[in-house]
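Batch job 17 of 40 flagged for manual review because the log was empty.
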Amino acid sequence: MEIDVDSIIVIILQIVNSFLNSGFFWFVKFILAIYVSVLFIDIVLLLVLRGVGVDIRDTIKGSQMPLASKKKIQKRWLEIENRLKLENNMQNKIAILEADKLVDEILLNIGYTGSNMKERLEKANANQIEEIDNLIEAHDVRNKIIYDDKFYLDNEESQRVIRLYREFLDNLEII
């Protein structure tokens, strides 16, 4: 008695095919489809409850975005730039003070802790804020304005310092 391999393969394929077309297998597929659907819905609900939207935004942006509206920040920045156009030493100083305050508020809102801007900048690093050195330099100019009565800023230096703050805000896509 010779065993024909081709006929055995055909018989096995017929058995498998009849099983795949059986009512029992359709019932198993139906139950699995319901189970997978429920599992998918559960995962989505858990992600929503956990607040995955915030995590995704933090992952993409690297930090939380400021709570203030973009339009309000842009309006404040426009007022700062308008002060510079007056080309007045006192207005230039006020513009720098306002820019520093705006950036400090943003740093606080995006999660940098500390009692003042200097502490917040010390806790950050170049991997978190690309313009960290520029912000430190601009903040030092702000401190000179506050603590040195005789500190003088010409228009070019004032505009340069304001550009340092602007680079930070541009990088965050706020203005």
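Reviewer: the log was empty due to a logging misconfiguration, but the result itself is present. The radius of gyration is 32 Å. Unflagging and moving on to job 18.
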